[in-house]
Amino acid sequence: MSRDNPIFLRKSSVNFNSDSLSKAQIESIVKASMWAPSSRNLQPWRVVFVSSDSSSYNSLFDSLSDSNKEWAKDCPLFAVFCIEDDKRLNKKFLDVGYAG
């Protein structure tokens, strides 16, 4: 595989742009998580999206560990994934990773 392949040019970053997201951008993110593949097509997650202009944003931010606060301080939207602890769903964390 050539090093020119986009997969090798990818860069992970923990820096967020603090610009607010438009309603259309947030809706696009929500739809993408809804259509993510999951084991047995169960979609065992529920997602709560909290934008920086929400009254819940500061409470959610304050609940983060100090190390997470460092990289999340400019994050304009949090996605909180909630899953029921169902022992039959052994791929639930993989599923949430696809949706995220």
Give a written overview of the molecule:
With 100 residues, the chain is α+β, with helices and mostly antiparallel strands. 37% of the residues lie in helices and 14% in strands. The protein contains 5 helices and 2 strands, in the order ααβααβα. It is globular, with a radius of gyration of 16 Å. The model has no long low-confidence stretch (mean pLDDT 82).
Instruction: Give the SSE order as H and E letters.
Output: HHEHHEH
For the CA atoms, what is the radius of gyration?
16 Å
Structural class: alpha+beta
Biggest β-sheet description: 2 strands, antiparallel
Poorly predicted sequence stretches spanning 5 or more consecutive residues = none
Distance between the termini: 27 Å
Cross-sheet strand order for the largest sheet: 1-2
How many distinct beta strands?
Answer: 2
Cα shape: globular
How many helical elements? Answer: 5
Helix content: 25-40%
Mean pLDDT: 82
Instruction: Name the assembly state.
Output: single chain
**What proportion of the residues form beta strands (DSSP E)?**
5-15%
